[in-house]
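Subject: for your reference before the review

Hello V.,

The reviewers asked for a structural picture of the protein, and I figured it would be easier to keep everything in one thread rather than splitting it across files. Below is the amino acid sequence we used in the manuscript, unchanged from the supplementary table.
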Amino acid sequence: CFFFFKQKTAYEMQRGLVGSEMCIRDRYSVLAKSAKGKSLETLISTILSDSEVWIFGEALEMENIKNLKGTPSEPHLRALELFAYSNYMEYKQNKKNYIELNASQLKKLKMLTLLELATKEKTIAYGKIMSLLELTDVRELEDMVIAGIYNNLLGCRLDNKQQQLIVEYVASRDFKMEDAPKLFGQLEKWLSHVEAVEKKLESTLKGISSKMEEAANRRIKVREAADSAQAKALSEADQQRMIFQPQMQYHGGIGGMGGMGAFGHGGNRPDPDYGHQTLTLNLQNQPVSYTHLRAHETSLHLVCRLLLEKKKT
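And here is what came back from the structure prediction:
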């Protein structure tokens, strides 16, 4: 199963330091300015035992602590450097170079060693941690990790099923000035990677923008073509209704009916008593050709004759 813990941001971690650890370190700095000999050794031992102090660079920069080098108190200086820059494995291999650490100091050094491992690996097997730190069981490992989480030193998940620690963030430790070029090189490498990703994103965004613009232009052209086709279709439909559905009115009789002439009674004038007849031609679905169109106007009506001839099929 997994144990989930709230991941804190770097701002939250630094804010916690401002409220607690920095105040404690300031108090120790004030005391260290006037401490000498055995009192200074006692002060260093107190700093190494304090569970709220995890940064030791300020103490190492103080002149009276630097002056411990080459004196009988030098093992205390080396122990302070051990907590600042090194780990539990170094202490086990070279115990004679340092003071004898008590239980709380050993526990603190193991925690610092765990932070060092977490900066190098994002997934750490339980077996590796327990072997390096000489832990007896998983419960002791879990207690150490939980203590580190509540002290804002690291954020992680304990995966008991896979027997591994999954790291999410780690608090920073002290580093030696001679390690600064290496750190700067890593920062430059990271910056180059960020710039490369930024350029790739810009290129991708430009490509997407160009494709979106092309798609918008295509939609406009399609819309214009559709509107044009619709207008043309409507115009042609109107023309077809005017051409193929004419209404033709004939006043008077039809030639040859009852011996009458074209205007009835065989005369040359229309017969008003004969009435009138309306003829509608609907040739919408029949292929035709125009052969002749003749029109003349009388004082009463406009007469149109449309002579159509069916196409040969």
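For the response letter, the relevant points are probably these. The CA atoms of residues 29 and 61 lie 10 Å apart. The beta strands are 2-3, 123-125, 154-159, 164-170, 247-251, 276-280, 288-297, 302-310.

Happy to draft the paragraph if you're swamped.

O.
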